[in-house]
Write the structure tokens for this entry.
Amino acid sequence: MKIFVCVKQVPDAKDVRLDPKTNTLAREGVQSIMNPYDRHALEEAVRLKEAHGGTVTVLSMGPPQAEATLREAISCGADEMVLVSDRAFAGADTWATTYTLSMAIRKMGGADLILCGKQAIDGDTAQVGPGLAERMDIPCVTYVRKVVAVADGAIRVERMMDDGYDLVEASLPALLTVVKEINEPRIPSLKGKMKAKKQQLVMLSAADIEADSEQLGLKGSPTQVVKVFAPEMRGDRAMIEGSVDEQVAQLAAKLETIL
Amino acid sequence: MDYFLSEEQQMIVDVARQITDELIIPQRAELDETEEFPADILRAIAQADLFGLYIPEEYGGFGGGSFDVVLALEQFGRGCVGIATAFAANALGAYPILISGSEEMKQKYLPAIASGEKYAAFALTEANAGSDASGIQTTAELDGDHWVLNGTKQWITNGGEANIYTVIAITDRAKGPRGATMFVVEDTDPGFSYGAKEKKLGIRASSTRELVFKDCRVPKDRVIGRIGTGFITVMRTLDLSRPGIAVLGVGLGQAALDEAASYAKQRVQFGKPIISFQAVQHMLADMAIQVEASRALVYATARHIDAHKTGVSKMSSMCKVMATDMAMKVTTDAVQILAGYGYMREYPVEKMMRDAKILQIYEGTNQIQRNVIGQEINKEYSKK
Amino acid sequence: MLKIDLEACIGCGVCESNCAFGAITMEDGHPVVNEKCTLCGTCVDNCEVEALSIEREAKANQADLAAWSGVWVFAEFRNGRLAPVALELLGAGRGLADTRQVKLAAVLLGNDLGEAANELIAHGADTVFQVDDPALAHFTDDAYGNVLADLIREHKPEIVLAGATAIGRSVIPRVATMMGAGLTADCTNLAIRDEDGALLQTRPAFGGNIMATIVCPDTRPQMATVRPLVMKPLARDASRQGEVVAVTPVAERLKSRVKVLESVLTESEQANITESDVVVAGGRGLDGDKGMALVSELADALDGAVGASRAAVDSGWISYHHQVGQTGKTVAPKLYIACGISGAIQHVIGMQSAETIVAINKDPHAPIFDVATYGVVGDVFEILPKLTAKMKERKGQ
């Protein structure tokens, strides 16, 4: 089975702050990490490879420093890594991103199964998975929490819904987006780290994937950011003071009036 | 501080650190409470290729030396000495095979140990033979094609969890020091059984049990090396394993220092964080000095052992004594700095203090180690 | 692209310090822009000498924007009922449609739809496009996507809204890709821009640490998903008139490469948190299951549901179904009590619409107090048991 895993290098989102006075994203000291959901997607891909045979290729669209994340993926069991990188991709929204990723996958000979994390913790859109499936003209199952079986050209999975879960079967090739509950990602092995160090990176530019420049990057993005601002937080901040017993008494009285 | 590690050595540290931070530290308090064997963590260590760090590549191991093992164990010790001991005891059990075993024996047992598929344990201590190892009473008698073992081993780490036991028994009492032989006993051998898990002061995640050999029959090919070489194999095993134990002390001391220093920065009394008081600062300073010095000695010893296979007893004993005495002192001081909170089970330092004690006792008490060092000095200076 | 008038530029550097994306650096006294620029226009607005301007290339394939008219809502229907978010979106959609002076329609896909179409009309829809077919009994992304896309191509609505639910977040990106349309996820605010009637879509990013407003200048429809409980539905008006249009797609379009074998509804141990009037939530400050138990007890005493921050869920003290926040559920109860929760924006995003917010935390500087109606600086382990006892007392238990 030829499995592709789309991974993204993201800033550790909880550390990114917008200074409301200067309107600047403070990015100093913010670590770059593999998008946590992608770690789960990668782990699932490696497990499927171990069970059913095949290869796992990790693919990322990003700046050159995304290479570190791809090497981390190799140390966790991926076989090949591909970085699709070009100044032309900068500013891409999910439309341009899915176009770029699909051209890269086609260039690499296509996939039987594509795994993605449910969303990236910087953009938080969760749009790339389903959008990429549409580009590749394959079915997509989102919020997968368990892969039950792979057989006879189909994959059977449990997908989480808001009120429970569905057991679904999709014909292959297919794309799955996964949630954290699906597995416990492995810690990179020593041999994996050594392999990652030596592994050749396949780097593809816009020209390599024969992309239409009109559909790339900022130019190719139907959505545009027109304003960025710090979220407003307004609360009355009526602080309840006193000893523990006094606080409890006052609070209980207030709750009574509300309920 | 820069320890001038190679890239590969740094990778070992990074993988071990990740296992410690993501798996060992979050589970250590619960495993200490339930006294449960850390099977999941050992599995993760195996998957990360660290289980067979010291086993040569041709037997499925990483082919690393003492220093590589030391680097990994230091991280695990920082997390939990109990869990680290459960892992380290496998090396202790495997060393006799590695040191003295035949090629067939190595092929038979080492790959399974390297992959973490099977666990190993080392069985020397008995009720009447602790520091005085020569006082062992377990016997082995030849009966046709089998050796028959009779006796009881006490306080064996990984006892009951291991599948492969390297056991020393008396084969010819008349021959004194040349009268003992090491054997491989498998958990499925007839006549082998083990007792209940011991309840201990510390390293509770590590399983400690009595082993009982009652007409335990093992085939002849289970003899490790030549008959009568048992004590020699034991001595060489302990020489190799001592830096590993020592570095558990370094990791433990570091963990205790980290807890104490962080706490001292947060705890405010008399209007100031207590780290501003000289009394506390001096304690922390002494702790830091001792941790770093112990680390330097352990690292130097491990590197020396990797380069020079023989004549390592004195260094090996020295680093064990220093690092483990240090760990006892540093963890006790850490509890003192955390004071009332340090005494509470909710905080990690009381466990660290409880865990530290065994480091001064097992693998040869620190008193015996000093005997060894003294004797080596005696020998050294006789030549001068 | 960003154009810099070097003669007008006075080298003050305001543009550099105001750029949220670090796309401008001052070199030799004037700004140099790199590829991080998103053309958001903040620097243009801030330049006192108007030395900056944005020149947008006319797109090669401009949609004839005027041909697209109307506001649509994808009305999610699952397990025999309309998802509440559909009605909320009709509430938001009505406002947008009225501003644009166009019609508001709902698209209803499923099987055995019963009275759902009438419910949609009673909540504000002028038209309901209804597709009732066994092939749509269970959600599959290709069948639902194809049917929705075909309807959009035929009727050309300028705006399409959907709930950011498991279904919405699965099918809408697919449809947007089919249409070449811009899609903005998890919008917290929707408005119409005065100058050109474009849809302004505001949403959180970076885990909620920043808010961004987005437009789709050149593509139609403008698509947006919205989280449940962010918008408010209109009051139900059974007398409202509307048209139900039954649509029969070609069989080919109803085919799917996905089979739904089984649909399992899980009972949650306590009341579904999004439907409860009272939510008591626990965070890192509770330190473990025992702490979470105190939260549960208070929730019980108030007949409420138990919520949790991501920290509590990730630590394994409670299951994911209770998670409130950016990567969990959004709740808007009458009363939200945050216990031992610091109030990181990622959590606040999920509960800031609550009517009354009470925060209990031992750190007086915890950001949660900035959104709280009432704040109590104290130890949850002392306060919760006493508060629970008091509330039980007053309840007469």
